[in-house]
Amino acid sequence: MTNEEMNAKKQKLASKGRYDINDLLMIMKLLRAPGGCPWDRIQTHKSIRNDMLEEAYEAADAIDSDDPVHLREELGDVLLQVVFHAAISEDEDGFCFDDVVSDICAKLVLRHPHVFGEIKVDGVENVLTNWDAIKQQSHGNETLFEALDDVSRTLPSLMRAAKLSRKSEKAGELVEIPGLDRYDDIPEDELEYEIGEDLFSAAAAARRRGIEPEQALYSACERFIKAKKPE
Predict the structure, then answer these.
(1) Domain co-membership, 83 together with 149
(2) 62 CB neighbour count, 10 Å cutoff
(3) Cα separations (Å) of 122 from 78, 114, 119, 125, 129?
């Protein structure tokens, strides 16, 4: 793109009142082009890694607040991170934004054969069962250990623990966890409260003894995975 072409695009973008995804892609291209923004030009996947996490949490906060105006803004910030990472990759002769879009479209079509194919389903549970089966096929015949080991270690440890136990339970291999049965007799409408209190107490007890609760649970997750490793 010549300087004249870039200047023309800048002027056109600056005068618009409403934008679309193509405009966002062009803005990012101009920001990272020679003569663009010095900060944007030097960013890498790793340098903006935490920005992706922060924007995702802020979007989640907007959802929890039931604030559509805030959510609209935060979803834009999340989308910016996707476009940013795609632009960085494209500049390094890697994948581009269209590749990201194509991959997720292909995945959605593949995992919804009841919509895009001839498969018949009977309710949500059937859909989820099919989804897991197709996902398993696409990953090959991975063992439970491999499936657990693939769960992102960057997840908050509490979220990761729930995901690990869910995957194990689906495989029929949830190991015996001490104290788990004590929640069986708690009424449904009191269960969230009781579990929340226990989690808070555990975090407070850890702090009191100089233990980082996030790290303690991270280590427990690692032990859980290791217990599933084939001999």
Answers:
(1) no
(2) 19
(3) 34, 10, 10, 8, 11
| pLDDT (tens digit per residue) in 138-159 | 766 578 888 899 899 989 999 9
* CB-CB neighbours of 112 under 10 Å: 16
Contacts 24+ apart (CB under 8 A), 107-113: 110/134, 110/138, 111/135
Q: What pLDDT is stored for residue 139 in this prediction?
A: 65
Answer whether residue 177 is part of any domain: yes
Q: What is the pTM of this model?
A: 0.75
Alpha-carbon dihedral angle through residues 126, 128, 132, 135, given to the nearest 10 degrees: 110
| Same domain, residue pair 77 and 156 | no
Residues 148 and 214 in one domain: yes
> CATH no. for residue 69?
1.10.287.1080
The whole-chain average pLDDT of the chain stands at 91
- Look up the domain containing 81 and give its range: 3-97
